[in-house]
Design goal:
The complex is a heterodimer of chains A (347) and B (429). Chain A has 347 residues and is mainly β. Chain A is 0% helix and 58% strand. In chain A, the strands form seven sheets. Chain A has a six-stranded antiparallel beta sheet with strand order 4-3-2-1-28-27, with no helix packed on it. Chain B is globular and about 75 Å long. Classes of the chains: A mainly beta (347), B alpha/beta (429).
């Protein structure tokens, strides 16, 4: 079935300034209510449909560091942070249900499975853990990424995604390695490499930058898109093109290699259209961008400059609204097209 | 009296004679001294007499928030927390867990306000301890230390500066103190170039030439006193000493366990070289770790670089202490400036010289102390504001150098400490 949303019609609709940095978001289905993780260590509720939307903390206490991942399953919100904790919240009464010391090092992302039975957290201890949403118990650990970079420094595990059918989980790390896992068993079933996304400067500055920051499976689960940044000359800054590589992950064939030097920085978020005809990407450096790419030929359909470095995005169910959160702002975008929702977008 | 040690005899062909007169303590300084130091009496004498400085230069400007002055929970604090150290009441960034366990020999200064926030100007200010002045070339810290702590007859370099990365690479300066105190500046390779004997000259030739020269010199000087000959002999011995010091720079001379103790990275191995150099009597060693200039991705950069610093510095302090050298070696961490409290959209921090930190460990330092304070967000110094001159006065004091000493340029007195600056007594033992 086709989605006739036209990415070339992307247009900024509303722009809201917020304090701090908004690192993550989970949207309540069929609504403009966002749960936003912020650099103030709090989880906020933001109603984009309100007359004067603003961030409102769902609780004064919670995490002890930057909130970097948020996943919503029904009334249960699970957030993760640099404090190495996961917190289960009830969004009915905005209370803490449980706190779990989930990782040894800083948590980078938390997402929910399509059936809502579990969440996956990834962290700089290079582990991905699966947790039951209902009781908070750890189901499984996915362990296979190297703890150190090839140059002997601590690595990071930034990105995670789950296929729409729930069968596969993919994780991506700093040095450009993606591992695909069987969700039910934790077995490694695939791997692709994107080494260009990791820049090590051996001569001038002797440290690294970059890494895989985003992953997305296509709706049929056969392709995986990997987002990061291209090679950087001066690693003091995010001065490289934003970069996406798309693979048939089972054959390891690279379908597309995309670099956009007009909009530099990290690709922090990726999402395929339900019919797989386009890929949305968002991210930034000092500024930000939202881009759409044609998945037939890999060409750019549209890029709009975002007024901030975008850290997370969420499409409405009808794909006519795009919510983005990032550095000091929340921006709502609109797209035109026929209302043909096919598959519930990731919230 | 010549020091004999079984292991020295193994290197007889490249061994240079050194003399240690009782009470005078002139050190024979070449690669063999590292073996000689196994003699407890010799080590004790060295310990008593030779003070040194190891400057860990955090080139590019390390963030005080992610090292010595964390502000977790503040809008400026970033995501990393603070950890308790083994000194009650002293907390540092969680990115330095090893250093947190050995703060007993380290003092922190958190109240530097040096005002100059560009790399070149900051390098000059924090290198010389004062702002530049027209018509005069101030020597940097290394040159002053070389002058004050170096020995005339030393056969090792007085001032070694290791800067292996290309970014921000700047040589030190001996200024008006002249070439004698200029740094041996090592960039491409940590083994100094042009120290090895020429291939055309065999080991035997080299030694026999030296012996012949000594024979002729001794005969000449037995019948007449000549300052020229003495000066030339001194220079020649110095060059031969420098030639033999090549092996000081070779970490392969250390056991694999010692190399592993320091860690595998270039910086960590260079910390090991620094220990070897001070152990052999080099008064000043600078090891630069470039490049901390994290305008983008500050937290990722500090995760990497702090891991490097934490391992290298903690190993260095432990090793110096275990060898009985730390009480006579001052280890400093310093850069051009710190980094902004504000976090930019690339999650970076920019240059900031208004409220930042450094550390002093070892010789003459009251460990476990913290001097100075910044405001809750780290925007300004709240208490104990000091500048580069105060820091330099403190360093001189810690080493037993008269911080009020003056050099002279012609008839003009030039104090080694900038005008109006005094040592920070709170951090001095």
């Amino acid at each position: 079935m086709m989605t006739n949303i036209d990415p070339s019609t992307l247009k900024k609709q509303k722009d809201y300034g917020t304090p701090g940095v908004n690192f993550c978001m989970a949207r309540r289905p069929e609504s403009a209510t966002l749960f936003v993780g912020n650099s103030d260590f709090k989880v906020h509720q933001f109603d984009a449909s309100a007359e004067k939307p603003e961030l409102k903390p769902i609780a004064e206490d919670g995490h002890n560091s930057y909130v970097t991942g948020a996943a919503l399953v029904g009334p249960t919100l699970v957030t993760g942070a640099y404090d190495k904790q996961l917190i289960w919240w009830s969004t009915v009464n905005n209370s803490v249900v449980r706190k779990v010391s989930a990782h040894e090092l800083w948590i980078r992302n938390v997402i929910a499975s399509p059936d809502g039975s579990y969440v996956v957290s990834v962290a700089d201890d290079m582990q991905a853990h699966l947790w039951s949403v209902s009781d908070g118990k750890k189901i499984r650990t996915l362990s296979g990424h190297d703890e150190q970079t090839p140059h002997g420094y601590p690595s990071m595990l930034y990105a995670v995604t789950i296929s729409a059918d729930g069968k596969f989980i993919a994780t991506g790390d700093k040095v450009g390695r993606v591992i695909v896992w069987e969700a039910d068993t934790g077995k490694q079933v695939g791997e692709v490499e994107t080494p260009v996304m990791y820049t090590w400067d051996p001569k001038a500055r002797r440290h690294s930058i970059g890494g895989i920051r985003s992953l997305a499976f296509s709706a049929d689960g056969k392709q995986i898109a990997v987002g990061g940044i291209g090679k950087i000359g001066n690693i003091d800054h995010l001065g490289g093109p934003h970069r996406i590589e798309v693979f048939d992950w089972q054959t390891k064939e690279r379908k597309h290699e995309i670099e956009n030097d007009n909009f530099k920085g990290l690709v922090e978020q990726l999402q395929f259209s339900p019919d797989g005809t386009w890929l949305a990407a968002a991210g930034g450096d000092h500024g930000g961008f939202v881009s759409f790419y044609n998945m037939e030929d890999g060409k750019e359909i549209k890029t709009e400059k975002a007024p901030m470095h975008v850290h997370e995005m969420s499409f409405s169910e009808d794909y006519r609204t795009l919510y983005t959160v990032g550095h000091g702002k929340i921006v709502v975008w609109e797209l035109q097209g026929e209302l043909e929702p096919l598959v519930a977008p990731r919230t | 009296m010549t020091i004999r040690h079984p292991q020295i005899d193994q290197f007889n062909r490249r061994r240079f004679l050194g003399t240690m007169a009782a009470g005078a303590g002139t050190v024979a300084a070449d690669m063999t001294v590292l073996n000689v130091l196994k003699n407890p009496a010799f080590a004790e004498e060295l310990k008593r007499q030779q003070k040194s400085v190891i400057l860990l230069w955090l080139a590019g400007g390390a963030s005080q928030f992610e090292t010595w002055d964390p502000k977790p929970g503040r809008p400026t604090g970033g995501p990393f927390g603070k950890i308790a150290t083994n000194q009650s009441g002293v907390e540092i960034s969680e990115l330095l867990p090893k250093m947190a366990q050995q703060m007993e020999t380290t003092a922190l200064i958190r109240s530097l306000n040096t005002k100059i926030a560009d790399h070149g100007g900051g390098f000059s200010l924090m290198g010389t301890g004062r702002r530049p002045e027209a018509g005069i070339e101030f020597p940097d810290l290394g040159a002053i230390i070389a002058r004050e702590l170096g020995r005339k007859e030393s056969k090792v370099p007085d001032y070694v500066s290791i800067y292996s990365s290309t970014e921000g690479r700047r040589n030190g300066t001996s200024g008006f103190l002249g070439g004698r105190y200029a740094p041996m500046f090592l960039t491409q390779d940590v083994i100094p170039p042009n120290l090895s004997r020429l291939e055309q000259v065999s080991d035997l030739d080299h030694v026999q030439r030296a012996e012949l020269r000594q024979l002729l010199t001794d005969r000449f000087q037995s019948k007449r006193q000549s300052l020229v000959v003495s000066s030339q002999t001194s220079a020649y011995e110095r060059v031969r000493g420098l030639m033999s010091s090549e092996r000081l720079f070779d970490v392969e001379e250390e056991s694999s366990s010692m190399r592993a103790f320091y860690g595998p990275t270039q910086f960590q191995q260079q910390c090991l070289i620094a220990r070897r150099l001070v152990e052999a009597g080099v008064p000043f060693v600078k090891v630069a770790r470039a490049w901390w200039d994290s305008h983008g991705q500050n937290f990722e950069t500090h995760r990497e670089l702090c891991a490097d610093l934490d391992q290298g510095m903690s190993a260095l302090l432990t090793d110096l202490e275990q060898r009985g050298l730390l009480e006579n070696t001052l280890v400093i961490t310093l850069g051009e400036f710190g980094r902004t409290p504000g976090i930019n959209p690339s999650l970076g921090r920019d240059h900031f010289a208004s409220a930042w930190s450094c550390s002093l460990s070892g010789c003459g330092i009251k460990g476990g102390t913290v001097y100075g304070k910044t405001d809750p967000d780290g925007n300004t110094v709240a208490d104990g504001e000091v500048g580069a001159g105060h820091l330099f006065a403190t360093i001189f004091s810690a080493l037993g150098i008269d911080w009020q000493k003056e050099y002279h340029q012609g008839s003009r007195p030039i104090p080694i400490t900038d005008f109006g600056c005094e040592p920070i007594k709170d951090v001095l033992a």
